[in-house]
Amino acid sequence: MKNKLFLLLMLLLFTGVSQAQWQPDVRLTNDTAYSYTSWNNAWCIAASGLVVHVVWSDNRDANYEIYYKRSTDGGISWGADTRLTNNNTAGSYSPSVAVSGQVVHVVWYDNRDVNPEIYCKRSIDGGVSWGADTRLTNNTADSWFSSVAVFGSVVHVVWYDNRDVNHEIYYKRSADGGVSWGADMRLTNNTAGSYIPSVSVSGLVVHVVWEDERDGNKEIYYKRSADGGVSWGADTRLTNNSASSTIPSVAVFGQVVHVVWCDYRDGNPEMYYKRSTDGGISWGADTRLTNNPYASVFPSVSVSGLVVHVVWDDNRDGNREIYCKRSIDGGISWGADTRLTNNSAASNHPSVSVSGQVVHVVWSDYRDGNAEIYYKRDPTGNVLEIININSEIPNQFSLSQNYPNPFNPTTKIKFTLPKSSFVKLVVYDAIGKEIETLVNKQLNAGTYETEWNSGKFSSGVYFYKLTTNEFTDIKKMVLLK
Q1: In the chain, what are the domains?
Q2: Where are the alpha helices (DSSP H) in 217-256?
Q3: pLDDT for the residue numbered 440
């Protein structure tokens, strides 16, 4: 009991320290035109291992085009801007990005067909090269503001569409990694408007949230599929108040689903949060995350294990700045608001993604006169659960075989330390490329266990390597999806 209490205190201490480890802002774009992240909470950033992918809409080419940039070292340095679209007379807007292993998926809406349609594009080599644009919708009405999520080779896209006179939420999926696509599926059916969907997936369970006017005012609604998007359950109303609840963002880890949104019930817009611990079947109470007399808007949420990260833009400082907040117990309690930007111009429309211990945030920023894309990282902001499972001091270093093995999607890795050591535990793919760092810190002597969630990666052989000052070992594991 004393040992567990000590570990808990150390975890809380480490958590408090790591929350302050945000590194300086990095300017990702540099031209005289305007570069915008999506305002509809479709993620503009996706991280997988050390590779970070960022997308935005940019008018440096006279009209707006979709651009892409990547980092292969966890956000420390960045490659060149890559123009993904090229249709000189029409605009391409509001991109969203998702990644599974080496396959990167980007969706956006595009005016090249006179009316807005949803398009997608993919890279099968981690963003090095890109395939052709694929038109996902084809009707005479407007299709807007798509959001994409992927698990293994199944890709899920949602958007809102006015082909039915009023705006409804639509869904489409690919079961082969974006090579081919199924038919459009209408998810909502009411006489009022349904807008701004966000999608997240864990295994076969797909979660969609949106804002809906069927109740007179805008409320947050939710829908899920338990069979990978083949069929869908009923609409679930998540909010119930006389004010507007808007622009939701959803993230899932295992059975725990996290939703954040902007809510006007307090007179001014505030950030609210709600969670389900049974995969979306039932929901807890609304939790107010912010409390100030100014506007807190445009949230984005990301989750890894028990650690939930929320970012938004906030004008409590006179101009709009990026703020973040996190929970280290799966959304039960929340830490303090942390201000990420500090300049006299507006910073808005942030997106957040997590990989290993690193938290990545991207947003649009006007400090340079025009809107540019900025990025910030916290290398230790995502506290990975490392449990000391035995208070006795081992007599030697060791690395155990992961269990279960084969696995899908999580597996546990155990190791022992006979003395205090700096420990690095890294996962590699089949060709030896580092894809995830599970441990990178000083640990006391003991027997430890950590978990790897492979949700972003495809089936195959992987390796994990333990390194200390005096010991190195590597073992093989197999992911079967």
Answers
A1: 20-378 (2.120.10.10), 386-479 (2.60.40.1930)
A2: none
A3: 85
